[in-house]
Amino acid sequence: MLHVLANRTYRRLFAAQAIALLGTGLATVALGLLAYDLAGADAGTVLGTALTIKMAAYVTVSPLVGAVSARLPRRVFLATANTVRAVCALCLPLVSEVWHVYLLILLLQAASAAFTPTFQATIPDVLPDERDYTRALSLSRLAYDLESLASPLLAAVLLTVVGYQALFLGTAAGFLGAALLVLSVALPVSSSSRGERSAPFLGFGPFLRIPRLRALLAMNLAVAAATAVVLVNTVVLVRADLGLGQPEVALALGSFGAGSMLVALLLPKTLDRVGDRPVMLPAGFVLAAGLGAAALVLSTAPAPVAWWGLLACWFVLGTGTSRILTPTGRLLRRSGESRDLPKLFAAQFALSHACFLLTYPLAGWLGPALGQATTLGVFALLAAGAAGGAVLLWREPRGTPVRSRGKTTG
Length: 410
Known about the structure:
Helix content: over 70%
CATH superfamily: MFS general substrate transporter like domains
Number of strands: 0
GO molecular function: transmembrane transporter activity
Low-confidence stretches: 192-202, 399-410
Transmembrane segments: 12-34, 46-69, 167-189, 215-237, 249-267, 279-299, 305-325, 345-363, 369-394
InterPro entries: MFS, MFS_dom, MFS_trans_sf
Domain Major facilitator superfamily (MFS) profile: 9-401
Radius of gyration: 20 Å
Order of helices and strands: HHHHHHHHHHHHHH
CATH class: Mainly Alpha
Distance between the termini: 27 Å
Main location: membrane
């Protein structure tokens, strides 16, 4: 897997992604604690609303970015987006009202919606060989797991000596470092920048036409169900229901990241051997099982047992999300021409995050209304339904090559 880091351009882009996500993970922990300070037991509602705003920014901004980013200088575009994110992170420790949080989240996530799909569409141009690209996807998944594992563990250590407000400074430093790394390399010029025309609105078309991408839409909903519960409800489950402290919030989030990281490390050889479908489709049912088990443990077990059960269930949810998210770039790369990849990645970014427009507010609002255990049960059913839909939608003809390329119907 690590041999792709011999490519200097990819090595620096991977480093930029890793440190930016490390900072984002610190902000995730700090934001939950900030919400708890501002709203107490209603922190889940605040987080659910903030994350809904985040998803609204993703869904509205990223399709526009997909249409124009390929015609702009990639280095400057990516570095500018990271700089805007850094400024927003520096402002978060200064907030005193909930609406301040909402405004800064809107600005920060609009910049993220500009950065992420453009960055993702750049990697296939840097690593055109499919085996190299597969390993880059696993490394990218590991970088995202830094947000879920290393960042919470680092946050847990830092919180023993500083207040959570200091974590936002680490977030800003990560974004600025990423901007400098992007500026230090020469990036390939996209086909659109060279004047090659791409099909209008192609980004959304394949998701209606190609079975594997229709199934991906359903799997996106299963991932959104699990991730929303972890990000929105963890702070309330740990602080209010189990009566534990700030470091335990970080450790619970870290358990989710540990499961995801383990799968990302093991997945490249598995994908080479069996392909994407046998890896991805069962993962939705893994997510449903993890959510259902968490509901059972939290409703029946005493607090010490429930704490360890929560860590185990969050680990399982991490494994399931990684089995879906890691191969997603392979599906997109096989579903369009090179010149159309920016639009295709932007469409996946928008459509996947549209699922969070449903799950984030539900996680935040159902928790206080129904109780956390019942909310977990509702999300288990949602994930199970999405997983079943994906199985029905992804029916490839017998004999379809595992590593087929181009605009196939599978």
